[in-house]
Design brief:
4 strands; about 300 residues; single chain; 12 helices; mainly alpha; about 5% strand; two-stranded antiparallel ribbon; 2 domains
């Protein structure tokens, strides 16, 4: 028989039978898997509302799941029970990376479906913003509640578990300068690649985002575009940068530029950098981008 397992319920709240509160990265417990299964089922109903499963939109989704996510042969008419049996089996039984690959692919598909069918009601393409809660935000809410150490950042599941960190990165990605966005987006994709993460180049892209912003704000380019010179130029232009922050970021910049640093030609892709370092640099550089944009706007 099923056992009661309610996060925030009497047993959990009074520490009688506390629910798990440890960040889950590679081992998802039974409760978590069940909640993820329920999440997909609830989102399916919310996305397709009262559409009958024989409808072409739902059949397109079923074909995508079986044909693209699982790379299996597709029948001419797929049934709801059969497709969700496959989905639920993955969520309940398979490795964590398969579960995350499945959830990421379905969420991305539903986001594009809603953009195409709901258009302005779901996403304002002109102002580049969602009108309400996006599918990504809905999934992130469940991931946070279940202490799963991944969040959607820039439409990809990323192993970053702190909400403040996620907010800093998302805010930086929304900056108005495409070169800055491109570097940060690439840094995020490199660290988020679960099959072949590239921490060295992720760090390079993170610091390059700061350099790109400084070049834009100072108009300094080429060999003269060192971080120190650009920060000094910003201050000469009236941008007040806290001395402690400037010293701290110059130290971070030095970390990536030392004799064995990843930013030197020939050493990119070396084995020394770790996930923790790449995550730290992505968050720190995003925060510094946000800071520079804020102080330069004053």
């Amino acid at each position: 028989m099923p056992k009661v397992s309610k996060r925030g319920g009497f047993s959990d709240r009074n520490k009688i039978k506390p629910e798990n509160t440890e960040i889950q990265l590679k081992n998802f417990d039974k409760r978590t898997r069940t909640q993820l299964q329920n999440m997909i089922s609830q989102l399916y109903k919310a996305v397709y509302m009262d559409i009958y499963y024989g409808n072409e939109f739902i059949q397109d989704f079923f074909v995508y799941v079986i044909g693209t996510i699982y790379s299996e042969p597709v029948n001419s008419k797929l049934k709801y029970d059969d497709v969700f049996e496959v989905i639920n089996n993955t969520i309940q039984e398979d490795d964590y990376d398969d579960v995350l690959t499945l959830i990421e692919a379905i969420t991305q598909y539903w986001d594009m479906y809603l953009r195409d069918t709901k258009e302005y009601q779901y996403y304002d393409d002109y102002n580049k913003r969602y009108q309400g809660e996006s599918v990504y935000e809905a999934v992130n809410t469940i991931l946070q509640r279940e202490y799963i150490g991944y969040r959607f950042v820039d439409e990809q599941l990323t192993p970053i578990s702190d909400e403040i960190e996620v907010e800093e990165i998302n805010q930086a990605l929304e900056n108005p300068y495409s070169p800055v966005y491109e570097h940060l987006s690439k840094a995020n994709k490199l660290i988020a690649d679960r099959n072949a993460p590239d921490y060295e180049n992720s760090i390079k892209e993170s610091i390059s985002a700061v350099e790109a912003l400084c070049e834009i704000l100072t108009s300094i380019t080429g060999k003269e575009a060192s971080l120190g010179k650009m920060l000094k130029k910003l201050e000469e232009n009236g941008v007040k940068i806290h001395s402690g922050l400037k010293a701290a970021f110059n130290s971070l910049y030095g970390y990536t530029s030392d004799a064995n640093g990843i930013r030197h030609a020939g050493n990119i892709g070396g084995p020394s950098s770790t996930f923790e370092e790449a995550k730290f640099m992505l968050v720190s550089c995003s925060a510094f981008v946000n800071y520079l944009l804020a102080v330069s706007a004053n």
